[in-house]
């Protein structure tokens, strides 16, 4: 049921690849809540994915942008303002990729050129995006920016590789920009640390099934779905959370605060 939480608001959503994507779910729900949206993704992702299907369903234009190129991002914000008829009220950063993880390079044997790409695509793109928004004066007062993260930014998860470093950088960038944009225009910036989620990106990580199952048994509420994450993002875009900023917000069913659970202990208990 829609509540009109984003009625009249304008937003940019990046990273919608297919129906499994959290960004896809966010776009659908933002549209249902009354927002006007511009969709964006890198040209290569647009060719691989199904973004045009989403664009048609929610009547949103697609503006391609390589998030590692400043000129692309400045063009994205400028054209989005023109299309939507004003400044932007919310932005979702849902961008991440590691060549090292994709090609099976472990954390103790990284290709450093690929490592640079991981940091640029998955974290520096967030800084570039916000810097482009400032240069083009694109964010409205009291607007909201959200980037998707993961608890590997704080804890070691073997198999997540250099993406863990990228997420730690992403969260730091969110705090810093939250300060500067908050002081300047009351813009709030947060990161959401989501449960392991059955998306195309997530399932590409070696051992993801183990990540998912472990988190499911460690979380009192179980893993949060992509749909549930979309609901949470909508609340952060809405005026109901106007004073939440510079936070890394765990949306993980309680995983981040759980020490151990009987379900996990049962795997190691021997019957007498």
Write a short abstract of this structure.
The protein is of the alpha/beta class and about 270 residues long.
Characterise this structure.
- The chain is α/β, with parallel strands linked by helices.
- It contains 11 helices and 6 strands.
- The protein has helices at residues 22-32, 43-48, 51-58, 70-84, 99-102, 112-135, 163-185, 200-203, 208-218, 226-237, 262-265, and strands spanning 10-14, 36-40, 88-93, 139-149, 188-194, 248-251.
- It has a 6-stranded parallel β-sheet with strand order 2-1-3-4-5-6, with helices on both faces.
- Helix 1 (22-32) packs parallel to helix 3 (51-58), helix 1 (22-32) crosses helix 10 (226-237) and helix 6 runs parallel beside helix 7 (163-185).
- The N and C termini lie far apart (51 Å).
- 45% of the residues are buried.
């Amino acid at each position: 049921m829609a509540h009109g939480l984003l009625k009249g608001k304008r937003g940019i959503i990046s990273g919608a690849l297919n129906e499994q994507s959290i960004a896809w779910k966010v776009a659908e729900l933002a549209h249902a809540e009354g927002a006007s949206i511009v969709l964006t993704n890198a040209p290569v992702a647009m060719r691989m994915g199904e973004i045009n299907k989403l664009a048609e369903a929610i009547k949103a234009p697609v503006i391609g942008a390589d998030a590692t190129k400043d000129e692309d991002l400045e063009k994205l914000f400028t054209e989005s303002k023109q299309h939507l008829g004003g400044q932007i009220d919310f932005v979702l950063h849902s961008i991440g990729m590691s060549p090292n993880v994709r090609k099976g390079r472990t954390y103790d044997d990284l290709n450093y050129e690929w490592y640079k790409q991981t940091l640029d695509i998955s974290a520096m793109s967030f800084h570039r995006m916000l810097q482009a928004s400032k240069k083009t004066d694109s964010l409205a007062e009291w607007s909201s920016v959200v980037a998707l993260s993961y608890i590997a930014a704080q804890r070691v998860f073997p198999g997540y590789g250099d993406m863990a470093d990228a997420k730690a950088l992403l969260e730091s960038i969110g705090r810093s920009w939250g300060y500067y944009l908050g002081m300047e225009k009351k813009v709030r910036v947060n990161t959401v640390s989501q449960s392991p989620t059955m998306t195309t990106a997530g399932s590409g990580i070696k051992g993801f099934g183990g990540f998912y199952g472990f988190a499911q048994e460690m979380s009192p509420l179980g893993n949060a779905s992509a749909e549930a994450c979309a609901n949470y993002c909508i609340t952060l875009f809405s005026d109901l959370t106007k004073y939440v900023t510079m936070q890394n917000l765990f949306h993980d069913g309680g995983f981040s605060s759980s020490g151990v659970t009987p379900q996990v202990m049962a795997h190691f208990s021997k019957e007498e």
